[in-house]
Amino acid sequence: MIRGISRRTLLKSGAAATVFAPALVRRAAAAGDPILVGSMYDLSGGLEASGKPMYDVLNFAVSEMNDAGGLLGREVKVVSFDTQTNMQLYAQYAQEAALKNKVAVVHGGITSASREVIRPVLDKYKTLYFYDMPYEGGVCDRNIFIDGLTPAHNTQILAEYGLKTWGKKVYTLAADYNYGQITSDWVKKYVKDGGGEVLGTEFFPLDATNFGSTISKIQAAKPDWIMTILVGGGPISFYRQFNAAGLSGKIPIASTTFSGANEQLVLTPEESNGVVVAYNYLQTLDNPTNKDFLKRFHAKYGADYPPISDLTMASYQGMLLWAAGVKKAGGIDREKVIEALESGITIDAPSGAVTLDPQTHHCTFDVHLARMQDKQPVLIETFPQRKPADTAAVCDLKKNPREAKQYIIKVN
């Protein structure tokens, strides 16, 4: 995955991050037993380039809570599970976190497939679940809160920008699982709504490395631009081969995923320049909350820590949202925390204001359109307070609180 990250940085993001220094523990008030938070991220197994930073920021949020005296006067402890991108382990560890460790909440899962393994287990054992990832939309379940992007947040913005800026003919490359498959359908809808046409859509496994035939098809189809929804190790291979074919700068690219795992760090500027992305968080955001966060985070993890991506920030913001719910509820009783979170809680996050939508348990927040230049996102435009309109079309947990499913939203 990201080979440019130093061994020292990776060591700092290992299991030792959950061990609180004795002085810190003493500072946390000891009124009652610790509050346990389950962390289920891929720290190995193929998606560790995404999982390790998410794990780090979750622990950072917890350490700051404890430095401030704990949550409701109680120490917060992270119980970490390395899910290793293994579906069997997701199910096993979700059950262990709920039954053996009796955690108050689980933050975890990276792929949508892993979420759909974890979610029913935590539903069954009545353990609150935060999924801190962008995904394809449609999950309607009172036991889960999702603070990542859905297609209405960013895919629509990217499609409309591409159609307006580059042209009406699009070619899509997507990951071959539910996130890529469903999001590619949203691309078709948004492109069609804008008077455009998707010339072709191809799906790739997470470990894909050979894109030669696809690049040939793209050259033959002559699209005005490309939408990539690639996940895993594949993106690095695609962008390298695309550049080697002499297409960088000739056929523009928009992406719902690029730089989420810091792929740009191991690509040359020529291989990544010009890729357009849309995220809730960019490390380059110029606001006091973000600047203060980065100062505190780098003081703890080092100035050479890789750029904080939208995926990583979602874990931090997810912890802040959960903690705000616990504070408002006055305890960790699951039902009371859910009711508190459903009250429309808003946090002042590094990405801007983030508000939980009571109807869908998704978020309303700013989305920032940017172009990659010399491995950094350069802001193009900010779309303030985008709502999860896709999921809201099928999900109303205020009217139907017993819902616990994922809708495959019809987009044609």
List the helices and strands and how they pair.
Blueprint: H1 7-12, H2 22-27, E1 35-41, H3 48-67, E2 76-82, H4 87-99, E3 105-108, H5 112-124, E4 128-131, E5 139-141, E6 144-146, H6 155-165, E7 169-175, H7 178-193, E8 197-204, H8 212-221, E9 225-229, H9 234-244, E10 253-255, H10 269-272, E11 276-279, H11 288-301, H12 310-329, H13 334-341, E12 346-349, E13 352-356, E14 363-373, E15 376-386, H14 389-392, E16 404-406
Fold and architecture overview:
With 412 residues, the chain is of the alpha/beta class. It has 2 domains: 7-149 and 283-366 and 389-406, Response regulator (Rossmann fold, 3-Layer(aba) Sandwich); 155-255, Rossmann fold (3-Layer(aba) Sandwich), CATH 3.40.50. Helix content is 38%, strand content 22%. It contains 14 helices and 16 strands. It has helices spanning 7-12, 22-27, 48-67, 87-99, 112-124, 155-165, 178-193, 212-221, 234-244, 269-272, 288-301, 310-329, 334-341, 389-392; strands at 35-41, 76-82, 105-108, 128-131, 139-141, 144-146, 169-175, 197-204, 225-229, 253-255, 276-279, 346-349, 352-356, 363-373, 376-386, 404-406. Strands 7, 8, 9, 10, 11, 12, 13, 14 and 15 form a 9-stranded mixed sheet that branches. A 5-stranded parallel sheet has the order 2-1-3-4-6, with helices on both faces. α4 (87-99) packs parallel to α5. The longest helix has 20 residues, at 48-67. The radius of gyration is 21 Å and the shape is globular.
